[in-house]
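Tokenised fold entry reproduced for everyone:
>
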Amino acid sequence: MKKGTLLIPSGTPDDPDKRHLFVVLNDPAPDTGCVLLASFSTYRTDIYCDGTCVIEEGESGHTFLRVKSFVRYQKLRFSSEAQIQAGISSGTFDEREALSDELFERVRQGVFDSPFSAKKFKKFLARHS
């Protein structure tokens, strides 16, 4: 699972089909089956974007990250392996290719570097990377 990416629904009533790309930051924890997910958002100049991990247009080599993007560390979330498998099986989640090793390491390190990452996520990733 580690380094894998998923398109996960994130829509609102006004835009119910919207989805964001998430990356799985660790293999399932042996004790809980939990993984940590980080999402990407389009970089914009009209709102504040966390500058910890900015991906320039064309830099990632990932087919979904085609415009300048950033990792939204304030939206880190836990999920279970079972929840992810159920989302994939039902077609709710769409599997995409894994991140490159270099980009994955930048995203992962950003969990520790971003002022927006909650301590519980930093502790979890330090234990389960």
